[in-house]
Amino acid sequence: MKIKITILILVILYGCKTNTDNSENICETLSIMYKKDQKYRGLEFVQDPIFSILDSLKEAKGIDKMEYAKWPKDAQLKFGKMAREIADKSKYTSKREIDSMMLLQEKIDAKNTVELIQIVKDYGFPNLEKLQCKVYSAPFLIFGHSPKAYWKEIKMLIEDEYKKGNISDGDYDYILWHISGREGDPIKNSSEDIIIQG
Fold first, then answer.
1. Model's pTM, two decimal places?
2. Which domain range does residue 177 map to?
3. What is the 3-state secondary structure (H, E, C) of the chain?
4. What is the mean pLDDT of residues 89-112?
5. pLDDT (tens digit, 9 = 90+) per residue, 47-92?
6. Are residues 82 and 34 located together in one domain of the fold?
């Protein structure tokens, strides 16, 4: 009898440890996926650097924002022209380079999508509160940046997960908005309005 109880306790403890290990692994995987998802999105150097140069010039000359705001328009334009000349000589990303980076991002998005689909199939849609993730991730963004080739499968998955209560209203609405072609408001779509064309 003691042996059976000991075996039962060991099985329960092993199951709990495995579940914890899975949670930590899922959290880490989601965090890595999120970082990859953001790799080429919103990079500062993609933008025209004039405003950061203007701020640097003001700082270098000891001009605070309040003082600058009081300058006459002519003086502000002259100072802005200096910043523009420097910005034009600066290297910032061209449209062609941005397009190349977005092609790389699309490949990352496809890999992330496949990986998240597998996680959802194996464990359900990641509930970050239940998983108690210590690192930031946003699984809804992975599906929110998914390529069209996966939309039908994602729709079936999230419909099922939503019915089970594994996905929040906001995450659900955002993903549906994306897989419907990003038309309208991402929070106001409903599943009845979404038709995935294939």
1. 0.63
2. 22-46+102-198
3. CHHHHHHHHHHHHHHHHHHHHHHHHHHHHHHHHHHHHCCCCCCHHHCCCHHHHHHHHHHHCCCCHHHHHHCCHHHHHHHHHHHHHHHHHCCCCCHHHHHHHHHHHHHHHHHHHHHHHHHHHHHCCCCHHHHCCCCCCCHHHHHHCCCHHHHHHHHHHHHHHHHHCCCCHHHHHHHHHHHCCCCCCCCCCCHHHCCCCC
4. 84
5. 567 777 888 888 899 988 778 778 888 888 888 888 888 877 776 6
6. no
